[in-house]
Each structure stands twice: as C-alpha cells, then as structure tokens.
Amino acid sequence: MKTPYSLLTALALGVATIASTHAQQSGVADPNHNTPTPPWVLPLPENIQWKITVQTDKKEPLKEPTPASAFQIQEIRSTKVGTIKRDVFVYQDGSSEEYWYIDNLLLSPVARGSEEIAIETVGIGDSTQICDASHSRGFQGIGWITGKDYKNSETYQSVKCDHYSRSFEAWIDSKTKLPVAYKVDGKVFVYTFEDPPSYLSML
Known about the structure:
Number of helices: 1
Number of strands: 13
Order of helices and strands: EHEEEEEEEEEEEE
Shape: globular
Distance between the termini: 23 Å
Strand content: 35-45%
C-alpha cells in the first residue's frame, strides 16, 4: 500500500489515535563487577526519547570517502509515547527520513527520498536481531544481546557498563540497564537520553 509521503505524520498519528485512544572513550575493565542478571537491557519504557550519534571507531583504519558517504547516517532521533515510536534518520548530506511504528505497523518511505510511504506489519521480533543502525521497534543495535554474550564490566563513555560482544559490541549501563553505545563495521553508535516526550512533541 502506498500513500503520499506528505501525509506520513497525519496518518501515523491518526492510526495511533485509533489504536490506543559523545567523543568515543575506550572501555576500562572492572574485575570486581558481578555478572549481570536479566533483563540484560531495560524493556522499552512507555515514554522515552533518545538520540544516537554515529562516530568512526578510532581503532579502525579510515576508509577513503566515496560519493555514497553523503548518504550515510549521521544521527538517529527516536521518540516513543505509548504505542507510537518515531525514528528520524539524519544523513551526512543534511537530508532526513521518518519511520513510524504504531503497534505492529511500520510506516516508512518506499525508497530513500521518495514522497510515497509503505505500510507493513512488523512482528515483535522483527528488525531486532541485526546489530546495525537500521530500524527497530525498540532500542536500535542491541536486540541480539543475551547472557552468553556478556564479556566483562567496563567504564565506557564515563559510565560503568556491562560489555557484550559477538562480531559486534554493545555497552549497557550497569545501573539503569539503558544502552550506552554499540559498535559494528567500524562505526560506534552512542546513545544520549533526553527528557520524556509527549504526544505533542511528535507533531
């Protein structure tokens, strides 16, 4: 189903009404920290707002810039109120796109820069197992975490964290269980949490 992209915000809020009336810092291991217990990550709260900034891992060799680099993600702004979640992807060329999750529906552009949107059903487990900056009904980049992935305790971004690792990595605040950062393919995605939002803030 395709709908003019200019109607995205109005359609998203309409469906919702019907449905619900840092610079990178190397980790320092802490040998005295106890192994974490479930939940490994805090379940997504009812109202929450965060920003993810994308940084290059200083340990990885820099790649030569290409024309496609302008389309790389620079920042992700996420807002969740009730059963509605909006992700705004900001690219290095200054353009942006919006993705809306409303219960089990995803409203997204048909293609990058398109003025049409696609509406599809998204299962609870969908878009959560891949560690990248792609779209998720929950926190991006950390849906793969299990107790078996725990590596050690580290201070990362000045926060005491539980460090998880596979072929990618994630750091979770040991106290709040909120994500601090995750790393994949030489990119570090750093979380910053902001004041709880309201429905009006999503307009």
